[in-house]
Amino acid sequence: MDAHALEPIAIVGMGCRFPGSANSPSKLWELLRSPRDLAQRIPKQRWNLDKFYHPTGSHHGTTNVTESYFLDEQDDIRHFDTKFFGVGTAEAEAMDPQHRMLLEVVYEAMEHGGFTLSSLQNSDTAVYVGMMCTDYNITLGLDSTFIPQYTATGVSPSNASSRISYYFNWHGPSMTIDTAADFLDRSVVIGSSSVLISSTSMKMAMGPVTNPLTGTVSPCVMPSGS
């Protein structure tokens, strides 16, 4: 076996979004060091819990859940910087929040790793995104008379990864992986394998990979929590 195939993979940069203001690796670490219950009552800007609550969970059209886990106001995806990412307002409104969040966190992961936009432009950086929820697509389709113009591309799971490659001008493989509950594991395994394969004498149709990027998103934006 090629010695390179046994070489360990290094994680050089990270970005994240978690409840409890854990929007950076250092804040996530502090949360892990000092765990606390982050559950909070469902805020009214999500939906009016008083109107939908029923103690019996099987009661039609209601919920018996009163608490959940939410990102802080500072991490609200409605603050997405359209100008910075070169996205028009109309297009941004149709973009799945997962797509917007990925662009933000990928940029932060680059900063965390000490990379600049120019340092990786035109590189063979690969993107592997694990994603399984399509809540936003369902939400936009609830009223067919007001479906945004860019919905088709805005909610497409495949675009979650290709948007990143396009914006950062990366030319390595780019794919969105949906294997249900283990999409995180699959994304990491495929991303790690691509690094090892790229440095062997094997010629891959997808081309060499020098900097694989692995990301996962799985937020719930529908009142049903589906």
Automatic annotation (TrEMBL):
The keyword Transferase applies. Keywords: Phosphopantetheine, Phosphoprotein, Transferase. CDD domains: PKS (cd00833). GO terms for molecular function: fatty acid synthase activity. Residues 6-226 form the Ketosynthase family 3 (KS3) domain. SMART domains: PKS_KS. One of its GO terms (biological process) is secondary metabolite biosynthetic process. PROSITE patterns: KS3_2 (PS52004). The keyword Phosphoprotein applies. This is Type I polyketide synthase AVES 4.
